[in-house]
């Protein structure tokens, strides 16, 4: 396998995926921010027409992120015929519970399925070329991709369920340990099933028995830890610019914005460049922040973190201190791992 090509295919998906995450997520955050007076009610985030509209737009945009990821990975591999199969693969990943990782694997599967069909139909006369693009690639490609996604979801989705059970077992014990585990999981696969399991588990702790929203320590750990991940990459790139490529230096602004807005995906280009050095640093930094937030007993009343929902945090100074501490740990670890590498121009 050509890893450079695979990396380029993945980055193609990521580059189209990120705007949906950023735009949709900011809309959702604004909905909860503008509705902060209803933070502990069942109508939080949808109590009036305006915030409901923001919530709906954000939800729709976020709903497209996995199909877009799959579509443009497949497009990078197989050109336009891969768009349909890749998009459906991403949608099936979202519906089947395998989320980000399923969309990535499904996008690659969809692209290579179309590539295989192109090779198998290479001998078809040019006069029948339209049959390939209108019938063979869409119908046969879709059928084969859907079968592949059955296998992918059957393997990846149970992993998410097992992780949820594991977190439930921790919730009644040491709060700091649970906060550290949540933070580490958020960083471990950057939007994949492990990350999504930690996030969904955290969101579930906001729900009261009557259907209303209650402040949650676990959600605060999640919200603060997630900010550490992409922000740490941006800070490291700012402090040690010569250790990062020109492309990564250009990505740091987006990483700042996404990190401070709760989106871990801003770290993906940095982790993809040096996974063995960057990822452990982010996991430790996020875990430190999660543990500190839980230890301080800080709560958050919104199902999304970031500076947008800072007013919904019970203790803002300690929340920011926890964020700064975890970021500092991650940045120091990144520097330790890359300090002896040659400078990049």
Automatic annotation (TrEMBL):
<feature type="transmembrane region" description="Helical">
    <location>
        <begin position="278"/>
        <end position="304"/>
    </location>
</feature>
<keyword id="KW-0762">Sugar transport</keyword>
<keyword id="KW-0812">Transmembrane</keyword>
<keyword id="KW-1003">Cell membrane</keyword>
<dbReference type="InterPro" id="IPR006327">
    <property type="entry name" value="PTS_IIC_fruc"/>
</dbReference>
<feature type="transmembrane region" description="Helical">
    <location>
        <begin position="87"/>
        <end position="115"/>
    </location>
</feature>
<feature type="transmembrane region" description="Helical">
    <location>
        <begin position="12"/>
        <end position="34"/>
    </location>
</feature>
<feature type="transmembrane region" description="Helical">
    <location>
        <begin position="253"/>
        <end position="272"/>
    </location>
</feature>
<dbReference type="GO" id="GO:0008982">
    <property type="term" value="F:protein-N(PI)-phosphohistidine-sugar phosphotransferase activity"/>
</dbReference>
<protein>
    <submittedName>
        <fullName>PTS fructose transporter</fullName>
    </submittedName>
</protein>
<dbReference type="InterPro" id="IPR050864">
    <property type="entry name" value="Bacterial_PTS_Sugar_Transport"/>
</dbReference>
<dbReference type="InterPro" id="IPR013014">
    <property type="entry name" value="PTS_EIIC_2"/>
</dbReference>
<feature type="transmembrane region" description="Helical">
    <location>
        <begin position="135"/>
        <end position="163"/>
    </location>
</feature>
<keyword id="KW-1133">Transmembrane helix</keyword>
<keyword id="KW-0472">Membrane</keyword>
<feature type="transmembrane region" description="Helical">
    <location>
        <begin position="54"/>
        <end position="75"/>
    </location>
</feature>
<feature type="domain" description="PTS EIIC type-2">
    <location>
        <begin position="6"/>
        <end position="345"/>
    </location>
</feature>
<feature type="transmembrane region" description="Helical">
    <location>
        <begin position="316"/>
        <end position="338"/>
    </location>
</feature>
<keyword id="KW-0813">Transport</keyword>
<dbReference type="GO" id="GO:0005886">
    <property type="term" value="C:plasma membrane"/>
</dbReference>
<dbReference type="Pfam" id="PF02378">
    <property type="entry name" value="PTS_EIIC"/>
</dbReference>
<dbReference type="GO" id="GO:0009401">
    <property type="term" value="P:phosphoenolpyruvate-dependent sugar phosphotransferase system"/>
</dbReference>
<keyword id="KW-0598">Phosphotransferase system</keyword>
<dbReference type="GO" id="GO:0005351">
    <property type="term" value="F:carbohydrate:proton symporter activity"/>
</dbReference>
<dbReference type="GO" id="GO:0090563">
    <property type="term" value="F:protein-phosphocysteine-sugar phosphotransferase activity"/>
</dbReference>
<feature type="transmembrane region" description="Helical">
    <location>
        <begin position="175"/>
        <end position="194"/>
    </location>
</feature>
<dbReference type="InterPro" id="IPR003352">
    <property type="entry name" value="PTS_EIIC"/>
</dbReference>
């Amino acid at each position: 396998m050509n890893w450079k090509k695979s990396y380029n295919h993945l980055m193609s998906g990521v580059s189209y995926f990120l705007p949906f995450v950023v735009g949709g997520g900011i809309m959702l955050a604004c909905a909860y921010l503008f509705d902060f007076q209803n933070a502990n009610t069942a109508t939080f985030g949808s109590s009036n027409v305006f915030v409901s509209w923001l919530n709906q737009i954000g939800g729709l945009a976020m709903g497209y992120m996995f199909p877009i990821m799959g579509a443009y990975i497949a497009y990078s591999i197989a050109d336009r015929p891969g768009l349909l199969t890749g998009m459906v693969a991403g949608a099936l990943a979202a519906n089947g519970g395998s989320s980000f990782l399923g969309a990535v694997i499904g996008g690659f599967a969809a692209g290579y399925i179309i590539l295989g069909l192109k090779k198998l139909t290479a001998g078809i006369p040019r006069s029948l070329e339209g049959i390939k693009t209108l019938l063979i690639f869409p119908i046969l490609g879709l059928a084969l991709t859907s079968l592949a996604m059955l296998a992918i979801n059957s393997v990846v989705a149970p992993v998410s369920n097992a992780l949820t059970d594991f977190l439930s077992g921790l919730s009644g014990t040491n709060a700091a340990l649970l906060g550290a585990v949540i933070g580490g999981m958020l960083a471990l696969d950057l939007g994949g099933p492990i990350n999504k399991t930690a996030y969904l588990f955290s969101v579930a702790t906001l729900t009261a028995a009557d259907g209303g929203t209650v402040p949650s320590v676990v959600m605060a750990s999640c919200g603060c830890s997630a900010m550490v991940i992409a922000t740490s990459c941006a800070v490291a790139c700012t402090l040690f610019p010569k250790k990062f490529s020109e492309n990564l230096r250009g990505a740091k602004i987006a990483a700042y914005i996404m990190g401070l807005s709760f989106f871990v995906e801003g770290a993906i280009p940095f982790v993809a460049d040096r996974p063995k050095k960057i990822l452990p640093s982010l996991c430790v930094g996020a875990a430190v922040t999660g543990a500190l937030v839980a230890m301080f007993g800080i709560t958050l009343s919104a199902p999304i973190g970031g500076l947008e929902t800072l007013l919904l945090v019970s203790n803002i100074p300690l929340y920011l201190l926890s964020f700064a501490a975890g970021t500092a740990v991650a940045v120091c670890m990144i520097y330790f791992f890359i300090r002896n590498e040659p400078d990049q121009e």
